[in-house]
Amino acid sequence: MRGSLLVAGTTSDAGKSVVTAGICRWLARQGVKVAPYKAQNMSLNSFVTADGAEIGRAQAMQAAACGLEPTADMNPILLKPGSDRRSQVVVMGRPLADVDAMEYWDVKDRLRQVAVEALERLRDTYDVVVCEGAGSPAEINLRRGDIANMGLARAAGLPVVVVGDIDRGGVFASLYGTVALLEPADQALIAGFVINKFRGARELLEPGLDMIRELTGREVYGVLPWLDGLWLDVEDSLALDNRPAVGARPPYGGQTLRVAVVRLPRISNFTDVDALASEPGVVVRFVTSPAELDDADLVVLPGSRATVSDLAWLRATGLADALPGRTVLGICGGYQMLTRTIRDDVESGAGSVEGLGLLPATVEFAAEKTLGRPVGEAYGCRVAAYEIHHGIVTAEGGDPFLDGCRSGSVWGTTWHGALENDDFRRAFLTDVAAVSGRDFTPAPGVSFAAAREERLDALGDLIERHVDTDALLRLLEGGAPRGLPLLPPGGSPHGAPDFSQNRGISQNRGISQNRGMESER
């Protein structure tokens, strides 16, 4: 079989990433050569490919669901917000520029071409490409420049499945409204819906499913039940809003170890702590106030896209004053905050800034971003990691720790993903427990890689058991059904440009010369 489809969502955090990963996993288990794709991603959780390209962490997770090493083609455009108005634009894994929201529109045409060419390469290499949308396809103020949702679907002739989060409430209004706000040519590609995060009596839901089918003329392909434990590798910090303390399994021996992760305003790569939560007896929670550190055995300062700004926030909240004397691990931006001084003429332009002074080191921001997959050793254990940073840290004392340093009960490293190395993680937690005076023994044999594989299989099982997979196969092979009804009001007043002309889209894929609406055959 050959084909592609787009998984869109009514909102951010509706479940697009996990549904995309689940479809990828289900197809891969059927022996299909499948790859993920997201044209444009806005996320501060990123990953580095084997050849040194930076992409969204969710696409790396989806590649793992397919049994693939991730590549830049799977996420050709990555936006990393540094403030409410400015983002770093990463194109094909390399930083292009820092731009504000209006400046970004000036490069949209060029980026659209990049995104389309990346998709074409994937479609030439794999039998199926499962594309993930961004935010909502019904952001009508952004439709003219859209390259991730209906703009992509129109250009590439993709059938679209819309995912709605029923746990937030209002799912039927969201599904109907999403379709109704689209112009007719976009509506024609919305094939149907998947309802996500359902918990309750299915018989109470059924009348709603029947009504949304009647109102829209579109199928509900499945209802995915709520499933605990899907917090690994989340893409959006919105997922942290309702995230409880995780890792509540009983300790292997002795006491529980409590980890407090500071939720910085521009927190990045908070997935670093997922591996800690996989350990029995380790409870991980995200905190924003000094009082929440009272019972913490370890405080983690995670990565940040705005190190100097987030350091100022630490001071304003009183968290900075609460850190001395505690057991602290700083990762990347968090490590930079722990140093004596930070010289930043690149990210913030603030010049010389006083750090927290808990580690004997200094930071100098470089114009060129460091991207890599380093390998080292600590506690006698091999450690494979990845690094993404502008700040270059120079240790001026203390003891070596990975690429960073340690001073007493404070550790710092720029390496992300180090805690996913099982032997190193257990050795580090043993040291933390000793420093903190906690009677804690890590459980032997816990494999974070195996836990991630189990999660991916759980996503594949969700699709296989709760989605009409025959209908998905029909969409992949035949495109959106013909003659789908139009819903009022039937379109945006702004209209939308035709992206199918001269955009690197192969016409032999059955895409219309005029509107890019013909389905793939």
Automatic annotation (TrEMBL):
Keywords: Cobalamin biosynthesis, Glutamine amidotransferase, Ligase. Residues 6-230 form the CobQ/CobB/MinD/ParA nucleotide binding domain. Residues 258-423 form the CobB/CobQ-like glutamine amidotransferase domain. The keyword Calcium does not apply. Residues 499-521 have a biased composition (Polar residues). SUPFAM superfamilies: Class I glutamine amidotransferase-like, P-loop containing nucleoside triphosphate hydrolases. InterPro entries: Class_I_gatase-like (IPR029062), CobQ/CobB/MinD/ParA_Nub-bd_dom (IPR002586), CobQ_GATase1 (IPR033949), CobQ_N (IPR047045), CobQ_synth (IPR004459), GATase_3 (IPR011698), P-loop_NTPase (IPR027417). Residues 484-521 are annotated as: Disordered. Catalyzes amidations at positions B, D, E, and G on adenosylcobyrinic A,C-diamide. NH(2) groups are provided by glutamine, and one molecule of ATP is hydrogenolyzed for each amidation. Belongs to the CobB/CobQ family. CobQ subfamily. This is Cobyric acid synthase. It comes from Streptosporangium brasiliense. The lineage of its organism: Bacteria, Bacillati, Actinomycetota, Actinomycetes, Streptosporangiales.
